[in-house]
């Protein structure tokens, strides 16, 4: 066996291992959502969509963009309308970043796929450019974990700073104002 063949074998085994670990983490993510939020049910989707609908009701697009910018930059506002939009945006973002397994699973899936590209690129007939295409994925995979931590800290800061701007209506489940039929459960 040549050295390239041994390297390709190791890359393939590592790639399969990372992808299998990602599948395990995705299963743990589903389990976490079921235990902590009623997982994947209409109630969970209604919570996230309710926050989104409430945000669309109270803030026009310019104010929503400004609220997202305020959360990202960890700024504080004194405007009550913007403060409420910031609080709703932070609550919505926190719901997306709370799951401890989801981002890790995506990072492992990206790393496994990138290793597979490097493996394919080292083949005798495949262009070496595929190996180079896998390299950015290997660099970006750990960044997904840092992005989650950064988003959680930013949303917690925004929620603390803008707690006085919450409206009692924001704590109740969102109800549609029109007479459209309720969504079907699957």
From TrEMBL:
Where do the record's region annotations for Disordered lie?
Answer: 161-186
Which segments cross the bilayer? 12-30, 101-122, 128-147
What is the name of the protein in this document? Uncharacterized protein
- Keywords, alphabetical: Membrane, Transmembrane, Transmembrane helix
Q: Is Membrane tagged as a keyword?
A: yes
Q: Specify the taxonomic lineage.
A: Bacteria, Bacillati, Actinomycetota, Actinomycetes, Streptosporangiales
């Amino acid at each position: 066996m040549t050295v390239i063949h041994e390297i390709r074998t190791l890359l393939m085994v590592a790639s399969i291992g990372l992808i299998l670990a990602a599948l395990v983490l995705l299963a743990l993510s589903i389990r976490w959502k079921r235990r902590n939020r009623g997982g994947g049910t209409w109630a969970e989707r209604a919570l996230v969509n309710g926050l989104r609908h409430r945000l669309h009701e109270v803030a026009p697009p310019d104010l929503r963009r400004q609220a997202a910018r305020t959360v990202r930059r960890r700024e504080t506002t004194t405007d009550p309308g913007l403060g409420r939009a910031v609080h709703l945006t932070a609550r919505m973002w926190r719901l997306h970043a709370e799951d401890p397994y989801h981002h890790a699973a995506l990072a492992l899936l990206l790393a496994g796929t990138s290793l597979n590209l490097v493996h394919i690129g080292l083949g005798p007939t495949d262009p070496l450019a595929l190996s180079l295409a896998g390299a950015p994925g290997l660099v970006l995979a750990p960044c997904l974990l840092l992005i989650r931590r950064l988003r959680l800290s930013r949303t917690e800061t925004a929620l603390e700073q803008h707690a006085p701007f919450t409206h009692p209506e924001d704590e109740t489940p969102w109800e549609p104002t029109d007479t459209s039929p309720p969504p079907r459960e699957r």
